[in-house]
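TA notes, week 10

Several of you asked for a full example with nothing omitted. So below is the full record: structure tokens for the whole chain, then the designed sequence directly under it. When grading your own attempts, check the secondary structure regions first.
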């Protein structure tokens, strides 16, 4: 908006006028200053005493000095006044132009608002909105780059509410697909335990990023279809400090585009289980991050269940 404003005809015309005014002022000041300098130098070196034509000028130097001072004072007063008046006139001419630009900006913001853009700046607010949107939904596609349960209260509350909704019977939920990275041994263990808890529902599916993907993706997202409407949340991994920027778009076209992107990522990931069907191919990724899973008494029976599947 600013570059367009600087190119406006009003400002271009004003710049030409100011340039001409500056030249006239420069010439005037040079003439006045030149006369004052010549008279002063002539008097200083005694030239006025030897020049018959200027013999009377010496006596009038105080008057000439006062005249020059008066001219400069008048010039400065009118120049300041002219500058202020010029600014007022310029602003009066620019106001309609500025109003049009403001209307245009307002229209652009209104278009964004039509897409339901909502901004968040804390983990608590975005995860609260995310959880409340998941509850009652039919389908969820989530790219989970955050840590495991136990790291932040807001994240723990989100996982608890979501897990409770997945476990409920008779809800609208048909599919919840989660795609996760496994950067810590604790998260590898938690992912396996969560898969075991939700496996019997047939609604929850889990896939994992192969290790080359670690650290290459910096933004997570979740697309939620609820009562036929799409909500797309985009956010970085949850920060334990609680400070976290995020954005929500309630727009069908964007939601469908992000679902396609998710499915492409899902196809390149390793599925741990899809609905009630475990997949043993996902176990090596978990064991690579957390080899202790094989000797963890809590997980041995779960491992056997997954290892028995092709």
């Amino acid at each position: 908006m600013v570059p367009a404003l600087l190119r406006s005809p009003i400002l271009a015309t004003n710049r030409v006028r100011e340039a001409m005014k500056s030249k006239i002022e420069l010439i005037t000041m040079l003439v006045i200053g030149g006369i004052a300098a010549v008279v002063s130098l002539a008097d200083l070196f005694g030239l006025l005493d030897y020049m018959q034509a200027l013999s009377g000028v010496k006596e009038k130097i105080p008057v000439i000095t006062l005249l020059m001072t008066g001219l400069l004072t008048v010039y400065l007063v009118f120049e300041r006044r002219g500058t202020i008046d010029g600014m007022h006139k310029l602003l009066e001419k620019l106001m309609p132009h500025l109003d049009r630009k403001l209307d245009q900006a307002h229209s652009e913001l209104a278009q964004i608002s039509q897409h339901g853009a909502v901004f968040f700046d804390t983990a608590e607010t975005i995860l609260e909105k995310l959880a409340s949107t998941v509850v009652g939904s039919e389908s969820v596609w989530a790219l989970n780059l955050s840590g495991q349960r136990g790291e932040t209260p807001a994240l723990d509350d989100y996982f608890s509410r979501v897990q409770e909704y997945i476990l409920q019977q008779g809800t609208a939920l048909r599919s919840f697909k989660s795609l996760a990275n496994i950067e810590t041994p604790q998260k590898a263990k938690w992912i396996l335990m969560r898969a075991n808890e939700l496996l019997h529902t047939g609604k929850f599916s889990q896939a994992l990023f192969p290790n080359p993907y670690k650290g290459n993706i910096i933004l997570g997202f979740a697309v939620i279809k609820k009562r036929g409407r799409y909500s797309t949340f985009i956010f970085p991994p949850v920060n334990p400090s609680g400070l976290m920027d995020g954005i929500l778009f309630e727009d069908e076209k964007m939601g469908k585009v992000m679902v396609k992107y998710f499915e492409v990522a899902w196809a390149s990931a390793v599925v741990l289980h899809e609905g009630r069907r475990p997949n043993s191919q996902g176990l090596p990724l978990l064991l690579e991050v957390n080899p202790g899973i094989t000797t963890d008494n809590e997980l041995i029976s779960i491992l056997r269940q997954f290892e028995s599947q092709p």
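The chain has two domains: 2-114, 118-307. Use that as a sanity check on your answer.
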